[in-house]
Amino acid sequence: MQIKVFNIKDKIEEKDFPDYIKREGYNCLKFEKNQINKIRKVIGYTPPLDVGRADFFIWDKKKHFFCEFKFIGDALRSNQLAWFFLEKNRKLPKAIALVNFKKTTNSLFVELFGESPQVKLIGFLLDNPDLKFSIYELANESSIHYITLRPLLNKFVKKDFLKVEKKLGKIKFYQLNLDNPVIRKFIQFDWALIKQEIGVK
Questions:
Q1: In terms of domains, do 101 and 112 share one?
Q2: What is the Cβ-side half-sphere exposure of residue 56, based on CA atoms within 13 angstroms?
């Protein structure tokens, strides 16, 4: 199971999160019983409303997450841990919004290993392992120049780190190869970083 982390550089409170995340291009609803019908229309099923559930439901055109709002150092409570990690909830796409007041929007992976193009690309893809991206989307989302990105993608494809397919004519779409043992190790390590950040032992 992967959990996306939103690193929030601004000092905001939980009540400010819907406005903040909307500026980032997401729609946002408080994850409450009276919003279930709206959420069901987006995802096509009824999510569990157990005690400890996430604070918000957020989505854009490509993806959606059940999102917990946390300050760094504020560990998940036991009932929140249960909601996030119970077997019946494992397939729900989840996110943690970490308010850390740092001047960065990088993934935890990039914060640890630096901002080389290779690290930025892997860090972005680790945050979005199930999604496919064109080279133009990857350049924009990972802040890597197109000219630098193209040979890097070719290298990763040759090493079998990425799967590639053609859609819409000649446009190629890239995705992490989750069958590759090296990529699986990267995912395990990234997940360990996230667990440390949110206080999961």
A1: no
A2: 24
Range of the domain at 178: 108-186
Burial class (CB in 10 A: 0-12, 13-18, 19+), 47: middle
Most trustworthy range by pLDDT among 43-47, 87-91, 110-114 = 43-47
Q: How many CA atoms lie within 13 A of 75 on its CB side?
A: 10
CB-CB contact of 63 with 137 (8 Å): no
Residue-wise pLDDT for 147-183, tens only, equals: 999 999 999 999 999 999 877 677 889 999 989 999 9
Q: Of the candidates 76, 105, 134, which is a domain's last residue?
A: 105
Domain presence at residue 200: no
**pLDDT exceeds 50 at position 13:** yes
Mapped onto helix, strand or coil, the DSSP state of residue 29 is strand
pLDDT tens, 109-148?
Answer: 777 788 899 998 988 888 778 788 889 888 888 889 989 9
Residue 196 lies in a domain: no
Phi/psi of residue 176, nearest 5 degrees: -55, 140
Which CATH number belongs to the domain containing residue 146 in this structure?
Answer: 1.10.10.10
Q: Which of 50, 84, 105 is the last residue of a domain?
A: 105
The Cβ of residue 93 has, within 10 Å, a number of other Cβ atoms equal to 17
Share of the chain above pLDDT 70, in %: 82
Residues 91 and 74 in one domain: yes
